[in-house]
Amino acid sequence: MPEPDPEARQAAREAELAPCPWCDQPPYVYVQEADFPSPKGGWKQQVWCTACGIVGPRADTEAEAVAAWNHRPAILAAEQRARREALEEAARVADGAAEENILTGASYGSSSVLAQKYSARANEAEVIASAIRQLGGDDAR
């Protein structure tokens, strides 16, 4: 039986892998041989996330490594979703504050001291929103 095309095999593997539990990036991960021999012959296998570098549990076979990677305690997933949703809401609030300060500052005219203060506050709110998004991953989703 011919060996499957490596690209097709990678695509199939990625389709069966859950997103990374740490960075929540799409599963561009691959199964690598761990530095430990397997009692079933060959080397232990584990999934590695190329986005953040996290490595999944060691397993005797590729299928077991994928299954271990995909196994997530429900409570952890729920806590991660709750954290992400809270960060998304905080980012939306900061974005709203930035927008409000921009509009309020514009109503005073560009040379006004108040306009400059509102502009500075808008910039601060944008920085805060950006920092919040970084806490939640690349962008709060």
Give a short synopsis of this structure.
With 141 residues, this protein is mostly helical.
Report low-confidence residues grouped into runs of 5 or more: none
Strand content range: 5-15%
- Say how many strands there are: 2
The largest sheet is: 2 strands, antiparallel
Q: How do the SSEs run, as a string of H and E?
A: HEEHHH
Average pLDDT number: 76
Radius of gyration: 23 Å
Query: How many separate domains?
Result: 2
- Structure annotation, total helices: 4
- Class from helix and strand fractions: mainly alpha
- Side-by-side strand order of the widest sheet: 1-2
Q: What is the molecular shape?
A: rod-shaped
How far apart are the termini?
44 Å
Helix residue percentage: 40-55%
